[in-house]
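Subject: Interface between my chains keeps coming out wrong

I've been trying for a while to get a sensible model of this assembly. When I model each chain on its own everything looks fine, but I need the whole thing in one frame so I can look at the contacts. Pasting all components below, labels as-is. Any help appreciated, I'm running out of ideas.
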Amino acid sequence: MAAASKPKLAVWKFASCDGCQLSLLDCEDELLDIAGAVDIAYFLEATRATVKGPYDVSLVEGSITTAHDAERIMEVRRQSKILVTIGACATAGGIQALRNFADVKAFTAIVYARPDYISTLATSTPIADHVRVDFELRGCPINKRQLVEVLSALLAGRKPITPTHSVCIECKLKGNVCVMVAHGTPCLGPVTHAGCGAICPSFDRGCYGCFGPMETPNTPSLSRGLEGLGMNERDLQRVYATFNTNAEPFRREAKRHGA
Amino acid sequence: MARKTIKVDYLARVEGEGALTVVVRDGKVRETQLRIFEPPRFFEAFLRGRAYTEAPDITARICGICPVAYQMSSVNAMEDAFGVTVDGPLRELRRLIYCGEWIESHTLHIYMLHAPDFLGYEGAIDLARDHPDIVKRGLALKKTGNALMTLTGGREVHPINVRVGGFYKAPRKRDLVAMADEVKRARDMALETVRWTAGFDFPDGERDYEFVALTHPHEYPFNEGRIVSNKGLDISVRDYNDHFVESHVAHSHALHAHIRQRGAYLVGPLARFALSFEKLSPLAREVATEAGIAPVCRNPYQSIVVRAVEVLYSCDEALRIIENYEEPDRPFVPVEPRAAIGHGASEAPRGMLYHRYRLDDDGTILEAQIVPPTSQNQPSVEEDLKVLIDGWLDLPDDELRHRCEQTVRNYDPCISCATHFLDLRIDRG
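Reply #2:
Try treating it as a single job with all components included. I did that and got this:
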């Protein structure tokens, strides 16, 4: 098949740690097949060669934190038929959205000797706050199996299968003993979006919510349970205010506890 | 032509976003600027008020390529503050997860980011079209690194199993032993990688660097040691700030680090190799010698060979740990917080990573300082360019631009890491 007839894939980066795009390079068994099925038209972390848009599928990593990036995402949207956000930064604003609850000038002064050299927005916002997003893939980082599923589905013209239930269901499917019920370990599993494969409870640790809120989570109810396990207001606020702090259900619950 | 500017607006095959400007006047390089425009994310600010227990998970998010380095430097700092010693099998497991990260990160850089420069390809995908077996070998090797991280850490990007005092859950001996054959195969591939990269055509470029790395009396460094250089520095990690200083320059979001009163220095594979060659495994020493780079390599372009030697070492070390591993009685040492200042350093794949925290009596973080390897190396990258480009000014712009990019990629710059970092612009006037 001639290269020109293959779908064009682009990978874009905004404010992020590069871990989600690395997940594509971490698909060691599938990478060469993916490269055979699509034309990797723009992926600076992997290649200098770039092909002009428009692109059939754009994967977007990172959140919007600068005026320049707010403009750049508009151009990415204009150039892309399908735009998929990958990871907690692009989907919810990321850990850097903690600035949304603070004074960014004070933050700049803490980190940089010359705050006047730094230009940044007061907020870190998800891509969907700026442009239409066709599909959101959760996780900090994303799960590479889910990434392969999303790419395969889009190439086949079907909807990706990424369950929206909670991490609790993944624990049940895996046959894990509940860390909260059996060991009294605080766990965000009941309100957290599935996708990781319940890694933390499988390692005797409570889920810390890196895939963000599931659909219609009952966070107040979970918070009562966490209080019963000895967490104070400050702990409760912090536990929701991490990698998906700007996702509405987590933001609301963190605020209820003093954020 | 008297004046010229060469610009690379988005450097490819580096982790993060940066640019490079080279200003040429009267046939001489006057200025080089490595500009890091990765947007600031303010980790050191929002760590204030968080619990000490959160530091490994939060700081991991600084870099998706080397999260283990951030987790290790942060737990080392917390344990320093609270007077906790982690030894025995837990200490060995920390070396094992680091072996996984070095194999994964170095192999990514060798095969996918750096080798295409030497072989005239735009990236690994093109390289795979002509040499599928080479790229498949790289992917298989990288996969073993990731498998070691997943086994000990739960997943390859942002592992979940590291905590202050040790781990949440210690792996079973049988699960480690089950990986031994795969690691042995990886060691064979690493050996082939050293020989393959040693055969590349390297530009001349020896420089008299001040190499800085952790050094330990008996071990190739991961988590412990004194900060030592080849020019007389020999200090405790706790004294880092007395000897190193970070400054903020207008053209970059990465802070530049210098040794007080001396200037630029170099961290990373070349530095570790020069300072700890004798502590490599016998096979790694033998192969490095055969490759012609032992015991000191001062040509930054040959860093790709040194990385391959470190991958080989990491496979040997992982095998040693797997064979000798005994399951610990408990997966972590209990930790009692107290008001204190803690310092921690470890050897990220790209070089030494320093963390310092001031903590309240309940373990709340009051101040955090994080000095990633890329900001330490940034002045050295700019000096390399200044010194080395002079000889290449007659090249056509495209080739010159490529040579400059390659010079930057020697460092495996992790721009996302350089929290506070590249576009190549050559200004010939």
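Reply #3:
Confirming on my end. Chain A has a mean pLDDT of 93.
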